[in-house]
Design brief:
The protein is an alpha/beta fold. About 40% of the residues lie in helices and about 25% in strands. The chain folds into two domains: about 5-90 and about 165-180 and about 190-265, P-loop containing nucleotide triphosphate hydrolases (Rossmann fold, 3-Layer(aba) Sandwich); about 100-165, no CATH class. The protein has nine helices and ten strands. A six-stranded mixed beta sheet has the order 6-7-8-3-9-10. Strands 2-1-4-5 form a four-stranded antiparallel beta sheet, covered by helices on one side. The radius of gyration is 19 Å and the shape is globular. Keywords: ATP-binding, Nucleotide-binding, Transport.
Length: about 270
């Protein structure tokens, strides 16, 4: 039986991973850990390699060298059957929510349960309703279509669908893309709460500094294909890493936050 079905830790370890495309190195000897029950964030400039790193962890890209371990089992050495089982334990939250336009809210959440679970229809509906309730979707909206609800509600429905199979791992690609600041904060807090509540290993690909500073339990900064820094959001003011500081404090707001932090330390 695969180890990831037996071990409750669900840690992801990336060990000396290299990945190139057409002989152009994109990831260079990257090593990082992604902890369960934490919001693990991959940040970096466009083209830094952060999206490729996430796709390697998911298994959408094969690595040229190195290891990606899920509870100690190397993803690249898993059998087809093990990978199939693992993918049923992975939740995905896509940048644009990726809801089915022709399906209702409830039908969207039911989809993975119908495809992959052995539940009865009644159990599927019960589970889907629970997930929608957990993300604060009113039952009156269960029969609505994505075009009939707001962007924030669409994102919450997408989260409900992502957790419907009770995943060990949750991958989020720019979850706040296209949302206003207030809704973004709500989505951030929801992802963080669900991560802690269900002890999911959540990996978020983001360039949203508000999200980083709000929920970044474990932050991995990728610079030109290399891991340049890893740590908690509370440590980000004092890294001494110029590339990270230039990235994080690019906006006037965070420059002021950085200055205030420096003055308090004096």
């Amino acid at each position: 039986m695969p180890k990831f079905l037996l071990n409750n830790l669900n840690m992801i370890e990336v060990i000396h991973v290299n990945k190139s495309f057409d002989n152009n190195p994109v990831l260079k000897d990257v090593s990082a850990t992604f902890q369960p029950g934490q919001t693990n964030m991959i940040i970096g400039k466009s083209g830094s390699g952060k999206t490729v790193l996430m796709k390697c962890i998911i298994g959408l890209h094969t690595v040229d060298s190195g290891k990606i371990l899920l509870n100690g089992q190397n993803l690249t050495e898993m059998t087809f059957q093990e990978v199939k089982i693992l993918r049923q334990k992975v939740g995905m939250l896509f940048q644009g929510s990726a809801l089915f336009d022709s399906a209702t809210v409830l039908e969207n959440v039911l989809y993975p349960l119908e495809m992959f679970s052995s539940m009865s229809k009644a159990e599927q509906i019960e589970r889907a309703s629970f997930c929608l309730h957990r993300v604060s979707i009113d039952p009156k909206a269960f029969g609505l279509y994505p075009s009939e609800i707001s962007g924030g509600m669409q994102k919450r429905v997408a989260i409900a669908r992502a957790i419907s199979m009770n995943p060990l791992y949750l991958f989020c690609d720019e979850p706040n893309s296209g949302l206003d600041p207030q809704t973004s904060l709500i989505i951030d807090q929801l992802i963080h709460e669900i991560t802690e509540e269900f002890k999911i290993t959540t990996v978020i690909n983001s360039h949203d500094m508000n999200s980083v500073m709000e929920i970044g339990d474990n932050i991995i900064f990728i610079e030109k294909g290399e891991k340049s820094w890893q740590g908690h959001r509370s440590e980000i003011f004092d890294t001494g890493n110029k590339a990270l500081e230039d990235f994080v404090f690019a906006s006037d707001l965070y420059k002021k936050v950085k200055l205030s932090h420096s003055l308090l330390d004096k």
